[in-house]
Amino acid sequence: MNTENQTKVKLCGLMRKEDVEAACALEADYIGFILAKGFRRSVDPEMVRRWCNDVGQETKKVGVFVNDDIERIISIAGEGTIDAIQLHGNEDNEFIRQLKEKTDKIIIKAFTIKSEEDIAKAEDSDADIVLLDSGTGTGKRFDTSLIKGISRDYILAGGLDPNNVAEAVKGLQPYGVDVSSGIETEGKKDPKKMQAFVDAVRKTSEISDF
Predict the structure, then answer these.
(1) What's the pTM?
(2) What is the rounded distance in angstroms from the CA atom of residue 49 to the CA atom of residue 170?
(3) Active-site residue flag, 52
């Protein structure tokens, strides 16, 4: 479980330069970009590179891929655009091992949680960090009672927003929390919701430290 003092915040699905600026102003630990093609929030790696010129090293840039070609992932990672690779498809441990042979980037593997068997798969993953979700961009919660016995650190995702994230952090004490649709208004990132989300996580983490 999380042994660090503060739950990490990952703001994902950023689509504009102003999204990046707002996330960095809030000192988000991770900022995520959908580099897989064909999704509503998909962005071009070259745009991400331009947006992130002034991003400090303390904020990790995450590229999200879904069943993508391994050579494309390695190529983008090698350009210095991202600090971490998030796999959100059916990638297995062999795929992860191949990535690790060719890149030193942090590897995050997302798992859709529907049963205890899914938790076992997450625990057995060779990824550096696992992310537990209800699906790819569903914006819905899953049965978190399934993860109370998990033995490794994880990022919690799926249906989180400024109104419920404090409860999730307090009750589950995850390594990190991930949000995308929960900080949007009419399909775009909302700076006020981003601020409220980060504030809720940080305040709850501080209380939990006592």
Answers:
(1) 0.91
(2) 35
(3) no
